[in-house]
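Work package 3, deliverable 3.1, input record:
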Amino acid sequence: MSANPVVAVRLRVNGREHTAEVPPRLLLSDFLRYRLGLTGTHVGCEHGMCGACTVHLDGAPVRSCLLLAVQASGAELTTVEGLAPGSDRLHPVQEAFRLEHGLQCGFCTPGFLMTVTAFLRECPNPSDEEIRRELSGHLCRCTGYQNIIRAVRRASALLAETQGHRGAP
Amino acid sequence: MKPPAFDYTAVASIEEAVAELAHYGDDAKLLAGGQSLMPILNMRLACPKKLVDLNRLAALAYVAERDGGVAVGAMTRQRAAERSAVIAARAPLLALALPWVGHSAIRNRGTIGGSIAHADPAAELPAVALCLDARLTVKGAAGERTIAARDFFRSPLTTALEPTDLLTEVWFAGPPPGSGWAWLELSRRHGDYALAGVAAMVALNGSVVREARLALIGVDAVPFRATEAERLLAGVPLSAEGLAAAAESVRQRVDPPGDVHASAAYRRHLAGVLATRALRLAAERAGGA
């Protein structure tokens, strides 16, 4: 017996409002992929280990496989699809991953991008130790991580440049 | 869908949560940050009839100075606690241990109360609660009561909480005068469960150790205070011999598991090494070395 076979959710994803009725046990990761078609959020381990499904919930990175869709009701979400400023331009962190070959198969990349964009907002000029510690929440089976670490350093520099230009009169 | 089917209520008040628990008892699970419970559900290791979601309870998310220490609402996110100036000043050990809990994305959801109530033998916050003589406020069917951290942890993932109890607050005692603190742990990768972890406090009166505290994780069925080692160190200046005796006492006391990550013998050795280093570091920070 189930008193609530479906529950209503209303949330904003990448600036767009969505309403839906979902079973309470539907994971946020599955909601994003199967209901909204936002398949950029990748599902790896589905128990919080690999980091591939990381999205921003009200600005903070979270594992979308460890949240129920219903728990995100009322929240503002950003997925990897929401990072780039336009269809012809990459976010500076994406650009840095491209320039430094910070990916091979790309499966883990959306999770890395979401963590790194939030990390560099809070810690714009991180040490290598800080970068490694932050990335420890993500698994990549291709790169050996060195290029990803380089990409984070490069992203830090690119963001500083962008902000420098923006700050100029 | 990964998790099994359950009934779901996001409660709007503490009273509602307690009423749900009183009704469902063992058939209900409380959902706090969900960073342990959601994996358990995704793997279908638990199939609760009812999931009682506490995440809309803003009244349980706070950090406040109280009675010389810090009162932390059970639903305070670990990341919020990590950034709290009050915690840095009044519960420095908690501030030192928090960055070791999982990863930043985990701490953005994980809660102080959730981690303590889950009582994983390798988790950091239960040992912090022990080392800071924490008092846990619990609301149950019969009203409110307080449990001392030292009476709380019973066996792996089992605490003094009844199925009808809601942990609402954790109070951590403030730092004694002249105290220094350290948190050390070793894991294969940052954020993994610790092979062993140690919380230490040394309070100095001149060169004499007035009080020493030592709590360990990952090397027994529950986190524990190494009271014998604490006793050996108190009342005398910190010395290499004293530290060696404390480390030996720790090695005698632990009963570590052995698995693919590390043998029991290695964890036993590691507990002694980390205890020595943490005590030395705490004494340095207390101004004694």
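Chain B has a mean pLDDT of 96.
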